[in-house]
TrEMBL record:
This is Metalloproteinase inhibitor 3. It comes from Aotus nancymaae. SMART domains: NTR (SM00206). Pfam families: TIMP (PF00965). Interacts with EFEMP1. Interacts with KDR. Residues 24-143 form the NTR domain. The gene is TIMP3. It is found in: Secreted, Extracellular space, Extracellular matrix.
């Protein structure tokens, strides 16, 4: 296993390939967590790829045209190449060339951007309006909040900086209503709560199905 693959597995972010490869296991993660835990978050189009002899099965190097950067200005202000394992069993990511724009997240190792199935990667046209707004500013506002996963009831928040993520109760985290439409943002009084774009929800009520 290459050093950067260890970083990807440790990150364990939700991605389009959550069910994609038999030997690649990723913990579900809300897009906001994926955003806040990534070194790089960009919108880009893949314009080329090549296989290089690096790692046990080789490494795919994608050439990209960066459209916009959302996170990572100090790490790598302009990304031209992204690296991923060639094997899907090692969480390697398969992207279409000259076809779609993608939302790409990843980590920086030795001056290179690495990504994989355990990162949040999605076709841009498949993102919801709320997710796009989250990338522009809302997710950043919530990076000091903690999204707490709920796998079975009952479950509760234990501090004022937590939002209860309940997508796993019905969707196994891929992709549920909260993932598609909500950001966890700190509100007045220091409390974190789910936010969609209208008046902030009542902090005293936790609804397991509709935050």
């Amino acid at each position: 296993m290459t050093p950067w693959l260890g970083l990807l597995v440790l990150l364990g972010s939700w991605s389009l390939g959550y069910w994609g490869a038999e030997a690649c296991t990723c913990s579900p993660s809300h897009p906001q967590d994926a955003f806040c835990n990534s070194d790089i978050v960009i919108r880009a189009k893949v314009v080329g790829k090549k296989l290089v002899k690096e790692g046990p099965f080789g490494t795919l190097v994608y050439t990209i045209k960066q459209m916009k950067m959302y996170r990572g200005f100090t790490k790598m202000p302009h990304v031209q190449y992204i690296h991923t394992e060639a094997s899907e069993s090692l969480c390697g990511l398969k992207l279409e060339v000259n076809k779609y724009q993608y939302l790409l997240t990843g980590r920086v190792y030795d001056g290179k951007m690495y990504t994989g199935l355990c990162n949040f990667v999605e076709r841009w046209d498949q993102l919801t309006l709320s997710q796009r707004k989250g990338l522009n500013y809302r997710y950043h506002l919530g990076c000091n909040c903690k999204i707490k996963s709920c796998y079975y009831l009952p479950c509760f928040v234990t501090s004022k900086n937590e939002c209860l993520w309940t997508d796993m109760l019905s969707n196994f985290g891929y992709p549920g209503y909260q993932s598609k439409h909500y950001a966890c943002i700190r509100q007045k009084g220091g409390y974190c709560s789910w936010y969609r774009g209208w008046a902030p929800p009542d902090k005293s009520i936790i609804n397991a199905t509709d935050p």
